[in-house]
Design a protein that fits this description.
Blueprint (H helix, E strand, L loop, with lengths): L2 H24 L8 H19 L2 H7 E12 L5 E7 H9 L13 E9 L2 E8 L2 E10 L2 E11 L5
Parallel strand pairs: 1-6
Antiparallel strand pairs: 1-2, 3-4, 4-5, 5-6
Helix pairs in contact: 2-3, 3-4
């Protein structure tokens, strides 16, 4: 086999591998503007900061009216149940003070945008006492939270 031909084949294979890896790495932001991740993060911050501030308007802005917020719990017999609330309940809890009693230095609000595809996205919020996994949708041109699955952090001793 001709050495020039072999080198050309290796170059073509390497170039194809690079293109394939680049496509795989960027597939989670398919057809998105660079600002979508920022808008999703802002929605998540409206949610968690609204809670800490007791700001019902900010909380309501972050939520789809048909929000489902759920947590898996176990009772003292070890039976599982699903605790849930909707948007109106969460907005009312926020209006009644929400997390205003949480000291400023304990108000953790770490937001990570996990994935974006079309009009759907996932994000994670690490708060003071719990972790929220958010599903967001681009609804009427803006990102809103439609589902939250959350879990309490273990109590520190």
């Amino acid at each position: 086999m001709n050495n020039n031909f072999a080198r050309s084949c290796v170059r073509i294979i390497c170039a194809f591998a690079v293109v394939l890896m680049a496509a795989t790495v960027t597939s989670h932001v398919y057809a998105q503007s660079p600002s979508d991740a920022d808008l999703i993060k802002q929605t998540a911050l409206d949610y968690i900061e609204g809670w800490y501030e007791g700001n019902a308007e900010r909380m309501q802005r972050a939520l789809h009216p048909e929000l489902a917020k759920r947590i898996v719990r176990t009772d003292d017999r070890g039976r599982y149940n699903l605790g849930q609330m909707g948007a109106m309940t969460l907005v009312e809890y926020t209006r009644m003070g929400g997390g205003k009693d949480t000291p400023k230095d304990k108000q953790q609000k770490d937001v990570t945008v996990l994935d974006i595809f079309g009009n759907a996205a996932s994000a994670k919020v690490v708060a003071s006492d719990w972790v929220d996994y958010l599903h967001l949708a681009k609804w009427n041109g803006r990102w809103v939270i439609v589902n939250v699955l959350w879990e309490l952090k273990p109590k520190t001793k």
